[in-house]
Amino acid sequence: MKPRLLIRIAALILWSASTHQLFSQKVGFLLDGYLTDRWYLDQKLFMDKVKELGGEPLLEVAHGDTLEQLRLGKKLIDDGVKVLVIVPTDSRQAARIVVVAKTANVPVIAYDRLIMSNNLSLYVSYNNEKVGSMQAQYAVSKIPNGNYLLFNGPVSDNNAVQFSVGQRKILDPKIRSKNVKLIGDFVMSDWGELGAMTKMDEFMSSSQEKPNVVIAANDALANGVIQSLPNDLIGKVIITGQDADIAALKNIVSGKQSMTIYKPIKPLAEMAAEMAIKLAKGETVKGATKMSSGNITVNAVLLDPVVVDKDNYKETVVKDGHAALDEIIEK
Ligand code: BGC
Asked: Are residues 148 and 185 in contact, defined by beta-carbon separation less than 8 angstroms?
């Protein structure tokens, strides 16, 4: 090949790479942290989809620190993101990031957890009230009369509030009719397994009453509870969860945990990435529904959660490729 032709080809390659850099849309993804396993998957699927659509994903993680998340939100805006997708550490405090973003003309999508702001472009999540109702419904269908113990995540996460609303819709009438006795209602300061383990330990050593049911709002809390449950109660107490964590699926197969709520991550992460790219290009996006919480009303897309237990895990999480049989069955 002639040297001049080679130089031309090289220049063309350089030019197309730099225009890609120049014109590809920067998309900020601001996570709370990795206290539960699912966020690694959310991150991967979201970032991959943004790249596939020609965008440039920029990731920051607050590691559970509200002020750090505010700082990182500002940083991403300074770095030139055209849209911000946020999993808020604190649903109220994160509204401050939306204020800064609005001034900089950067649209915001609240991902999985609502941000208490009327200036969101979109909220994408699951029907979280339904998650709570499904957990409680499962429990009362197995134990219609008995002692119930509740473990929930922090109220700074609006999802925890919604899980509780959903649970209480089912439980309150049963509590009033005295079929269900609430022997403890614990709201943890984070979603981790350690806090639940300690709390359950304290409860078991101080309470006269034993639980027949533990409604744990997610799998990490459920796993903490299971670790502090005396051996003679393991497999006898109905324990709920959420997230279809691999550890929880193992516990379901071996009979230690009764159910989990499976929320397929792929449709959520990919839809969020598609919406983010549209917003980054200046297009408008619409939610499939309007959702209100307190005095906040937002455009939202809310996906449906699925109950998973010993009877249907093969047709749900395994069939979907979320978990492989040999990861969850102890050999
Ligand atoms: C999510 C759950 C998750 C929890 C802890 C909640 O906001 O909806 O899926 O288990 O946060 O990360």
From this structure: no
